[in-house]
Amino acid sequence: MVRVGVLGAAGRMGTEVCRAVAGAGDLELVAAVDPGAAGRSLAGLAGSDVPDLEVVGAVEALAAAGVEVAIDFSHAEAARANLPWCAEHGVH
User: Fold this and answer.
1) What is the pTM of this model?
2) CA distances in angstroms from 44 to 65, 78, 92, listed in the order given
3) What is the tens place of the pLDDT at every residue in 39-68?
């Protein structure tokens, strides 16, 4: 199983990505990052098809969750900061 984190997880597209990852047999959704929804339940935002993770506000949470691959559906400005962080920390 590939450990996946979604950046921008609480947005319209982010919740769809979370559902898609959760439904894939070879992927495990282990982190949801969205500063605007930090502290909220991902299942409460995206539905019962996703793990009941707590949405966190900072990209650094990907390291603590052991994320191997990040999918970024945040805003362009946030993605510009997220991508170098992911590259520096070996997150694909």
Assistant:
1) 0.96
2) 20, 23, 27
3) 999 999 999 999 999 999 999 999 999 999
> How does DSSP assign the chain, residue by residue?
-EEEEEETTTSHHHHHHHHHHHH-TTEEEEEEE-GGGTTSBHHHHH-TTS--PBPBS-TTHHHHTT-SEEEE-S-HHHHHHHHHHHHHTT--
Q: How many CB atoms lie within 10 A of CB 77?
A: 8
Instruction: Please choose, from the candidates 1, 18, 23, 3, the residue with its C-alpha nearest in 3D space to the C-alpha of residue 72.
Output: 18
